[in-house]
Amino acid sequence: MNRISLEESPLSIVIFLLTIGISLYTIYGKKELFDKLALHPWSIVHDNKYYQFLTSGFIHADVMHLMFNMLTFYFFAFELEKFIGTWRFALIYFASLIFSDVSTVFKQKDNQKYYAVGASGAISGILFSYILFSPTSKIGMFFIPIGIPAPLFALLYLAFCFYASKKSSDLINHEAHFWGALTGLLVTIALVPEVLLYFFHSIF
Q: Per residue in 10-52, pLDDT tens?
């Protein structure tokens, strides 16, 4: 991990600190604020609370959920912003955050009991964007002692997200991981088309 620089990665630093601060603030006692900021499809559709597409990415279900997401953010977001610049990083992050939840909102729009939180969709987009720029890198996981080649990790990640979205019953929107990752890929390719040629040239 290279040195984190405010000059080179200003937005990712701000997002990192805000997400940790707001998440901890809502986890420890501010339940009413948690409910207002969480993704609640019924409120988005029926009460026009569109801001929840963004605010839900700054709160988390619990400390473990927050730690896992922020560790992933830490290892990839700062470097990605250095690669592509702040405005491109912003487009990838926030597009992934918003579009990762669109399918969930449509599916759950009439379910008043459904809530989801977390930056997982946006972070998935960042991770997959990073893989395009660094396809020969290896990515580690907590329960696997060796690094996994980035393209293989991407395929395994998508498969797991698809499976988890069918089985999960917690506040973590696993389907958002899947759509966030795809959004990150597509937005990155749209912003930097030559990265696709670089990706395939590097792995083959």
A: 999 999 999 999 999 999 877 789 989 999 999 999 999 999 9
For the entire predicted model, the pTM comes to 0.89
Quick one: CA dihedral 131, 135, 137, 138, positive or negative? positive
Can you give the C-alpha Rg of the chain in angstroms? 17
194 forms beta bridges with none
* 3 state SS of 67: helix
Largest Cα–Cα separation, the chain:
52
How many angstroms separate the Cα of 156 from the Cα of each of 59, 130, 143, 159, 163?
Answer: 26, 16, 14, 5, 11
Contact 13, 78 (CB under 8 A): yes
Say what percent of the chain tops pLDDT 70. 89
> What are the residue ranges spanned by the domains of the chain?
10-203
Interval 51-96: pLDDT, tens: 999 999 999 988 988 998 898 899 899 999 999 999 999 999 999 9
Domain range 10-203, its CATH number among 1.40.20.10, 1.20.120.450, 1.20.1540.10, 3.20.20.370: 1.20.1540.10
The one-character DSSP state at 61 is S
